[in-house]
Amino acid sequence: MASSTESQLHLTIDEADARGLVARITIDHPSHLNILNTSLILALTSALNRLREYERLRVVILTGAGDRAFIGGADIKEMAGLDVSSAHEFISRLHLACAALRALPVPVIARVSGYCLGAGLEVAASCDLRVAAEHSIFGMPEVKVGIPSVIEAALLPRLIGLGKAAELVLTGTTLSAAEAVRCGLVQCVVPHAELDHAVERWTHAILQAGPTAVRLQKALLREWACLPLDEAIERGIASFTEAYRTAEPRELMTKFLQRDRHPADEL
Fold this sequence. Notes:
2-enoyl-CoA Hydratase, Chain A, domain 1; 267 residues; 11 strands; disordered N terminus; alpha/beta; 4-stranded mixed β-sheet; single chain; 19% strand; Lyase 2-enoyl-coa Hydratase, Chain  A, domain 2; 2 domains
């Protein structure tokens, strides 16, 4: 196991037996709801960029310390002192952290417990899978403090539809975890005691799958979000073909065919 600490961010990388590595990033600022200041934003971006160097990396879990918040937003005290120049620099740095999440070649799971607001929701939206404890609260309250919701808030219309996204960013209203799962903002809501089990269930499923296939699939998901349908289909054909540059399809399909199967078993 490798471990490092930068500012108030903790990164651990564990060996998941022979199947590869699982990384866990924790934003550790619980007395302030894990809000993001410049120091934490830079530490998060640095940690994510380092993770791209691990060829055996299979999945990343992102969470906040404690039970009260995933990330409660960006640091309002810091933002209150910004001017035109420093505002551009601050929000661009936050975007680079979100972009680094999206650029990771492996799935990222957001483990949400408590408040997930503003910058926190932008970070969560940049992850591939989101699971939340039942007491979690989601929102984009930026207009209440005189700024628009920006950068990766642009992902929200694709996740929850333009109307629901408009409600969040124009009114600053919040969503309960139950409302968040109904509109598709999160994929799973569980009691807090079951949160780690839900994360483990997804992690296990990813580790059981082909590592190259999962990386190809994540890349396709990003392309599907922005390409016209015909081009997205063509990219899928190329990705399917690319999978056969490795032994993975033959090995996993042979294993599938050799197992004892019930007649109802299907892919």
